[in-house]
Amino acid sequence: MSITRLVRRVIALGTAIVVGACSSAPPPARPVFSPITERAAPETLPGKIVWHDLLTHDTEAAQEFYGDLFGWSFENSREAPGRYWDIKHEGRTIASMLAVARDEVDSPLWLVSVSVADVDGTASRASELGATINAEPSELPNRGRYAVLEDLQGAFLVLLRSSSGDPPDGGEVASGAWLWSELWTTDAAAAVSFYEGLLGYRSETIAARLADTPEEASGESVDGEESPAVFYAMYRDDSVRAGIHQLPSEAVSYWLPYVAVRDVSGMAARAEELGGKVLLPPEAVRNGEAAILVDPTGAPFGIQEWPRAEGGDR
Question: Backbone dihedral region of 155: left (phi > 0), alpha (psi from -120 to 50 degrees) or beta?
Answer without folding.
Answer: beta
